[in-house]
Structures are given as structure tokens and as C-alpha cells.
Write a structure and sequence with these properties.
OB fold (Dihydrolipoamide Acetyltransferase, E2P), mainly beta, elongated, 5-stranded antiparallel sheet, 38% strand, 276 residues
Amino acid sequence: MLQLGKFQDLTILRETDPGLFLGDEEGNEVLLPNRYKPDTFEVDDTIEVFVYLDNEERPVATTDKPYVTLNEFGYMECSAVNKFGAFMDWGLVKQLFVPFKEQARPMKQGSWYIVYLYLDEKTQRLVGTSKTNKFLDNSELTVKKFDEVDIMITHITDKGANAIVNGKHKGLIYIDDIFEDIRTGDRLKAFVKKVRDDNKIDLVLHSPGYRSIEPNAQYVLEELAAAGGFLPLHDKSDPESIKNELGLSKKSFKKAIGSLYKDKKIVIKEDGIELI
């Protein structure tokens, strides 16, 4: 059957004035408008398309790539708001509708939001929602400590960066474990640092354990080289000075220079660290 909100391979059945009619194995048909018609094709060719509803609520196919597909999270801009709800730019001609009842907070034109795409069972329409927590569940985890995972940053607080883990769970990167510029909407690789007793997931952006020292150590080496071989920072420096200079927490910085000192790549002086 035709699946709204997903990419699928369909067969070219015939060419008409409006475009190409495509079909599936069950005899269902959908129009691929002329604007998406490939330069060369033959009847019975297979083509990958995305199917959704047009402005008249009719299934239509497109070769455009939306920013999100069915049952996935995306980061998108609100392009308009009217008396019915908000409309999001999700990469297709027809914008994605987010009803007022599906807005975690009132959406504003020009602002960006994390949105989940689902199929409304009553109307059979593709709808967006920014009430994303109801689609995330940590009661039965599919990840464990040290697993590499795909994450999307949802929002950043004083505590750290909240993230969606593998499109299923909620996780957190604590502020002391962040040493690079990350923002809402970023899609990144991460590692499970710890799974707590209440199933909360702690994340890091580098492999946890001893191996986690390596990225920071390499980073400090690069900053040292760029600064001419000396940085006025050491293990007793103020945490804010370290954060402002390198973007590292004091704990991460101390681990990094400890590793570099052990490997005899730096000397630690009273006024800073120096390359050997």
C-alpha cells in the first residue's frame, strides 16, 4: 500500500499531462507531478519517491527530500501562523501543519523548533508536534553503557545539553562534559557514559573511560601549538579562565594535561603549561 510520510519505490505506470502515474504492487496509484519528472525514464521503471497529501488532501509523490520522515524528529523553522495553528518549513512545497494543541509552547513565525512527524489516525493526515516527550520512553532502554548512539540536541540548560537518543530515549550531556560548540538541532554521534538506576542516560561526545582523555589531550596540544607552545593555564587555574580560554571544564582540562604530562609532551610550570 502507499505509505504516507515515507520513501518508497514505485513503478512508473504511464505518462499523462499532469505528470507520471506511479503504482505499487497492490494496484494503488499516485501522481508524480511534472516538476519532479526525471529527465529520462521508461514505463515500468522503478523510482524512489516520498508520498504525502497535497493542498487538496490527495496523495501525491515527490522526489524532494523532506527534513523529517514518519515517526522521526526534525529541527525546522516556523514559516507561518494562522488561526488554526503553525506551519513548518520541512523541505516540501506543502508545509507541515502543527495544530495549536500540539504545540509545547505557542510557536512564532521565524523561530525554530524540534518537531515530531506522525500520522493522525482520525484524519489520516501527516501532522507535526513539538510535544516530543510523549514519543520518548526510558522505561525500557535499548542502549547500555559505552554504546555509540545517534543523538539530536533538543535544548541546552545550565545543567547541560538535553538530547534525543537513537530517536527513542532522552539523554543528557552534563555541562562539564561539553568542550565544543553544540546547539539545538545538532545531530551528533555520542557515547553512553552511564545508565542511572532510574534509567536516565548520561552521554558524552567522546568515548568514555580512559579513552575519553585522548580528544581533550589532542585538543590542548593543538591549542598549545597555535599559541606558540605556551598557555598561561595549569591545574590550579580558575575554572572560568580555563572555560573561557579552551572551552573545557577544569576536570577535563586536568585530565588532559595529566595525560600529556605522563606522555612527556608538556611540562607544567607555575605560570602555565609548555610544549616539550
